[in-house]
Design a protein that fits this description.
By secondary structure, the chain is an all-beta fold. Helices cover about 5% and strands about 40% of the residues. It has 2 helices and 44 strands. The protein starts with about 25 loop residues before the first strand and ends in a 5-residue tail after the last helix.
């Protein structure tokens, strides 16, 4: 249980903004920034354990692979490149702790103050518990140790529980352990009495910490709670029945009963008590700050409650996706088969597509609405319509391409003409003419003419033209907005067809594309900067704040096949770590590629992104090896 109160963060859509896309073969997707996915190839299925953090959720599968979804503002979802398998995972408020198959503990995410530093003599670990900014571990030798912040003494492990602790759990600023005799020992903050185990608790078999409260199951089967009770999170329901697991959130509590059913009590502000009707039979539970997750007996995961960072969006089969687009706090996934999956906020209907929509070729999210293009060329829009952005013109006819900004949509028809609606940026200049592609973001739109020139506009009367150089025309444009209003500064890039030039108006602000990024094959624009993909698969981030962990690409920056961006998020597709030939598995052909590149840099074989292919990359490849 590791939790944090939500903070409102906006994810403004950028046209063609995509992330967390899983492709066929040996390609995976990674998203980073405010929210993100890591290794979602398998979806949230085949899980053997589940964990919930402040605003994120994770699973571990039987083969040690794992998936995460949720907030990534401090790098919580940015897994170190050399971690490909885990035995256990536990989520803190702003950090993640993982136990490798050999028992070694690793911690990532940069929100901990002070940072959690693990000593070299820690040894293998059998249990761990992540709290606010501290971590408890029980070594295989039975020693309980704690690391991280100790503002309230939460890592000052009492002498009488250093040895012989059966289990441990961590809250925001307090800790607890169950000793061999079944007694509970608490330490750290006691503001709400959470570190004062009541006498009536007696001997227990389970004890778990919520944010500022605790839950325990006594040896006689009854459940007791103590600590903060402002939302009734300590008021145990009568006739709870036989309980086999307990979990606590910021303001709610959850019990898993012996028959596989779940009971929840406490706050329901974010719907954390609203158990889905199709929940099924449950094998494990956990709580985040304001959400609840449950692992079904079939290995799939169901979650409910706060959707702030999509932490309750746990797809059972991510499958092969074509694209994803981000809105204010919702997202649209389009699979390679044409299926549309909406996640996130739905307060304005932006995540509820119309019935009988059919197969989808593209979906673009605005701030609080979604525009969809079906495979039959029909456009449908749903959600916020305050500026007419969902009023699709009745005379539109068939459409080949769509793009969406904050509150407008533009569409390209088969004859190359552009039709738009919504805010002013949806109205194309009267002399635009026929175009070959379009883009939109924030309060601006753009198009590439058939001649290859680029046109950008924020209204029919406010436009500019960029003529291509004589050596080639422009082939792609990416556009975004810096700021929260339509009048905010527009950031955009244009890529020349031969890949040898990127028009970059932002160069005056220090966002300069390095010469080594050419020839480029893909570009993406976000609020924090942009991404450039070189033709050999090397990623070049050009960021406003390159030292911010949330802006760094997690893992290697080689072997990339495509790049994407949203207002608060970047994403990429890259070859599966170790799958260098892209055949969908790691084997001897990949080893041959790695060995042939030994000692060199800038190739997909540089799996850890160090700049040189070495023994570290060989270790990653061998860890991902698929026996033939």
């Amino acid at each position: 249980m590791r939790r944090v109160s939500p903070v409102a963060i906006s994810l403004l859509s950028i046209s063609c903004a995509a992330s967390s896309v899983v492709a066929d073969g040996g390609v995976i997707a990674v998203a980073w920034g405010t929210n993100g996915f890591v290794h979602p190839r398998e979806g949230f299925r085949n899980a053997v354990s589940v964990s919930a953090g402040g605003n994120h959720t994770a699973i571990v599968r039987a083969d040690g692979s794992f998936s995460q979804i949720g907030v990534n503002n401090l790098g919580q979802v940015s897994v170190p490149a050399d971690i490909t398998r885990l035995a256990k995972i536990d989520l803190g408020i702003t950090f993640i702790a993982g136990v490798l198959p050999n028992g070694t503990v690793r911690v990532w995410g940069t929100g901990t103050v002070p940072s959690i530093t693990l000593p070299p003599d820690l040894g293998p670990v059998s249990q761990m518990a992540a709290g606010g900014s501290h971590l408890l571990v029980i070594t295989t030798a039975g020693v309980l140790r704690a690391f991280g912040a100790s503002s309230q003494g939460q890592i000052a492990v009492p002498a009488d529980v250093v040895n012989g602790a059966q289990s441990a759990s961590a809250g925001e600023v307090h800790s607890l352990a169950v000793r061999a005799d079944g007694t509970v020992r608490c330490w750290g903050s006691n503001t709400y009495g959470q570190s004062s185990a009541p006498p009536f608790a007696g001997a227990v078999t389970i004890a778990k910490a919520g944010l500022y409260h605790n839950l325990a199951r006594r040896t006689n089967g009854s459940v007791v709670c103590w600590g903060e009770n402002s939302f009734g999170q300590c008021l145990v329901p009568p006739k709870l029945g036989e309980v086999i697991q307990l979990a606590g959130g910021a303001k709610h509590s959850v019990a898993l009963r012996a028959d596989g059913t779940v009971r929840c009590w406490g706050a329901n502000i974010e719907g954390q008590l609203q158990i889905p009707a199709d929940i099924g039979t449950i094998a494990a539970i956990d709580c985040g700050a304001n959400h609840t997750v449950a692992l079904r007996t079939d290995g799939t995961v169901v979650a409910w409650g706060d959707t702030f960072a999509w932490q309750t969006q746990t797809p059972n089969d991510v499958g092969a996706l074509r694209s994803i687009s981000f809105g204010g706090n919702h997202a649209a996934f389009v699979s390679t088969e044409g299926a549309l999956v909406m996640v996130g906020d739905n307060t304005m209907g932006q995540s509820t597509p119309p019935a009988n929509l059919g197969l989808v070729s593209a979906a673009r999210c605005g701030l609080d609405f979604t525009a969809v293009l079906t495979t039959e060329g029909v456009v449908a829009c749903f959600g916020d319509n305050s500026q007419g952005q969902c009023n699709v013109p009745g005379t539109l006819g068939p459409v080949l391409e769509i793009a969406a900004g904050r509150a407008h949509v533009i569409a390209r028809r088969p004859d190359g003409t552009v039709v738009g609606w919504g805010s002013a940026a949806g109205s194309a200049p009267s002399n635009l003419g026929a175009v070959q592609s379009i883009a939109a973001g924030g309060g601006s739109s753009a198009a590439i003419a058939l001649s290859g020139s680029v046109r950008v506009w924020s209204s029919p009367t406010n436009s500019s033209t960029l003529l291509p150089p004589s050596t080639g025309s422009w082939s792609k444009i990416a556009i975004g907005t810096v700021g929260s209003t339509p009048a905010s500064f527009t950031r955009w890039l244009a890529l020349r067809s031969d890949g040898m030039q990127i028009h970059n108006p932002d160069s005056i602000f220090g966002l300069v594309i390095p010469e080594e990024a050419y020839p480029a094959v893909d570009i993406a624009v976000g609020r924090r900067g942009f991404l450039v993909l070189r033709s050999d698969g090397q990623l070049f981030p050009v960021l406003l704040n390159p030292t911010a962990d949330s802006s760094k690409a997690p893992g290697p920056t080689s072997g990339v096949t495509a790049v994407f961006a949203g207002e608060q998020q970047f994403a990429l597709l890259r070859n599966e770590l170790g799958d260098l030939d892209g055949d969908g598995q790691v084997g001897s052909p990949d080893l041959a590629i790695l060995l042939s590149a030994w000692g060199t840099g800038g190739s997909p074989a540089d799996l850890n992104g160090s700049g040189e292919v070495s023994s570290a990359d060989l270790a990653i490849l061998l860890a991902a090896w698929t026996p033939s």
